[in-house]
Amino acid sequence: MNNKTLFIYELPTLYDIFKEIEEYLNFKITSFTKKEILNVEFRDYDHFLVLSNKRNSNLPNLILIDSFPIKFTKLLEKINVEFLKKNFIKQSNINVGQYIININSREMILENQKLKLTEKEIDTIIFLSKNKLPIRVNELQEKVWGYQSKLETHTVETHIHRLRKKIKEKFFDDNLIISMKNGYQISKKK
After folding, report:
1. Running DSSP on this structure, what letter comes out for residue 55?
2. What per-residue confidence (pLDDT) applies to 189?
3. pLDDT tens-digit profile of 87-139?
4. Measured CA distances, 75 to 10, 47, 68, 169 (Å)
5. CATH number of the 97-186 domain
6. Mean pLDDT split into 10-residue runs, the chain, 190 residues
């Protein structure tokens, strides 16, 4: 499914060239003019870029072409790189309740506050958030820490205790990770 769109702004000849080869591209092509700009609903598009030779700070995700001629292969490369960057940024944020977990920066974010987390803390929160039922300690040991033995260990309990403490100190929230009789889970409350 092709869910990427390249908007071409005020470049009709370039639009015609792209439109001619659209079936070979990994994105859809559309165009708009200065008169049509108010009718474009960018929020209706998941992944989009706007290609233009005009500096317009109101255009989101703008790729500015400020010198012509430009090699078409270089232009295609630049477009594809920008789509990859946008996709990477979008995939790095995961919503967990009222928080945003940024996998790349290893931060938990609420409004303007950020809490640095370890890789295991991030993995724990994400694993718990993907499950609707409480997760048993031995399952967390196996899936998050990679422990497969039946040895008694308090690694999970210790990490979750420390993680809950960090979250409570930073966000005054002691209910994100709740302890149930059959394991841990992310609170359903927002």
Report:
1. -
2. 66
3. 877 778 888 989 999 988 899 999 989 999 999 999 999 999 988 899 998 88
4. 16, 18, 11, 48
5. 1.10.10.10
6. 83 94 92 89 86 84 89 93 84 88 91 93 92 88 74 78 95 92 83
Report CA 158 to chain centroid distance, whole Å: 29
What CATH code is assigned to 4-93?
A: 3.40.50.2300
CATH 1.10.10.10 residue window(s) in the chain: 97-186
DSSP letters spanning the chain: ---EEEEEES-HHHHHHHHHTGGGSSSEEEEE-TTTGGG--GGG-SEEEEEESS--TTSTTEEE--SSS--HHHHHHHHHHHHHHHHHHHHHEEEETTEEEETTTTEEEETTEEEE--HHHHHHHHHHHT-SS-B-HHHHIIIII---S-----HHHHHHHHHHHHHHHHH--S-SEEEETTEEEE-S--
The Cα–Cα gap between 81 and 78 comes to: 5
Give start-end residues of each CATH 3.40.50.2300 domain in the chain.
Answer: 4-93
For residue 103, what are its two tokens? 């996998």
- pTM, 2 dp: 0.58
Paired strand residues for 101: 94, 108
